[in-house]
Amino acid sequence: MAETPINLEQTGVASPTTKTRPKTLLRLARYTGLKVVALLAAVTIGLYLTIWIANMGGYVDEIMRGQIRESVSIAVSMDPEMRTLSLPERRERIDEQVRLAEERLGLDQPFVTRSFRFLGNAMSLNLGRSQHLTSDTGSRQVRTIILERLPPTLVLMTTANFLLFILSIIFALFLSRNYGTILDKMTIGLSPLSSAPPWFYGIFLLLIFAAILGVLPFGGMVVAPPPRETGAYILSVGRHLILPVAAWLISGFFASVYGWRTYFLIFSMEDYVELARAKGLSSRDIERRYILRPTLPNIITQFALMLIGLWQGAIITETIFNWPGLGRMIYSAIQSFDTPVIVGSTVIFAYLLAITVFLLDFIYALVDPRVRVGSGGAKS
After folding, report:
1. For residue 152, with 0-12 CB atoms within 10 Å meaning exposed, 13-18 middle and 19 or more buried, which class applies?
2. Which end of the chain is less enclosed by CB atoms within 10 A, N or C?
3. CA-CA distance, 377 to 368, in Å (whole number)?
């Protein structure tokens, strides 16, 4: 006699799936909450340290006080009416104007007190006004200055990083299929070239192609005056991109290829890959299913961090090529001790990095079924 299947819902007994679902949601909620708190704490500590470093522990305040007193003294000495006053009266006027200027800038308060106010404004994205830098329209709003410099940096860094990322992976896959060949050994031998930064190669590229050969421009983003036609403008920008992008590729290509090649070789030597080869699968199918798919979380991580790295640009490289982007803006802000600009750029980068790190855990769970969010790094 056949047994009748038992319906757990009809008998009032909860199924294992029903029991584990609330536990899974609770674990996910607890993990998400702890992750958010940890990231906010890291952002807060990082920003506060940035505020102290950018102000050199309050020494920038002393520099600003000196600059205020100097400018007020010069203004008073150039004023004909002030020359009629006695020396004590003139000093009294100078001290009064200095006091008013310091109150207007908040320099009458201790730096420790002001540092927490800076932190609160930064965390709420109230970036304030620049102390020295201005936008092309004359605005001192830090937000306006950053937004004005963002498009040039995105053009340069997106082009350079996307080319580096895509070319590195494609060439690394090719080398993993041709392990031990002369080209593979040459790539390993040339990997130390990546120890030098992009601006180092940029100097030589400018010397050869701009100074000696004269075939490419020394720097800038577009010719002056800028072409009015859209096509001519794009061609001019593309011509100015060649040298900085080439310097970026030379600096990072060989090390990136070497890293990806090693990573692909490790997975290509797994037992399941050898089994797939024994079954007669093509090299393309093996790479897609058994090499690229396991490495997808790492590829996504590198790609996400590359996108975040676009924000701050390349400080020295943009300065060498006179590229009007965020990197050159930060360089100018550091030179002039413009703390609001430095902190404003850092806080946006910190928030973008924290959001990216937070989302990566969930993306890993989507692309790799072995990963379970909130399981403490364990795989199912």
Report:
1. buried
2. N
3. 13
Question: Distance between CA atoms of 175 and 287, rounded to whole angstroms?
Answer: 13
The predicted structure's pLDDT at residue 167: 92
Assess contact for 326 and 156: CB atoms under 8 A. no
- pTM, two decimals, is 0.76
> In this structure, what are the phi and psi dihedrals at residue 141, rounded to the nearest 5 degrees?
-65, 125
Q: Is 236 left (phi over 0), alpha (psi -120 to 50) or beta?
A: alpha
Name the phi and psi angles at 90, rounded to 5: -65, -40
Helix (H, G, I), strand (E, B) or coil at 216: coil
Contact indicator for 259, 204 with CB cutoff of 8 Å = no
Bridge partners, 379 (sequence order)? 371
Q: Which domains, ranges and CATH numbers included, belong to the chain?
A: 61-117 (no CATH), 149-367 (1.10.3720.10)
From CA 224, how far away is CA 243, in angstroms rounded? 18
To the nearest whole number, what is the mean pLDDT of the chain? Answer: 82
Question: What are the tens digits of pLDDT across the range 196-217?
Answer: 889 999 999 999 999 999 899 9
Q: Which residue type, as a one-letter code, is found at position 297?
A: P
Distance CA 286, CA 291 (A): 7
Residue 253 makes CB contacts below 8 A (sequence gap 6+) with: 164, 167, 168, 194
Residue type, 104: R
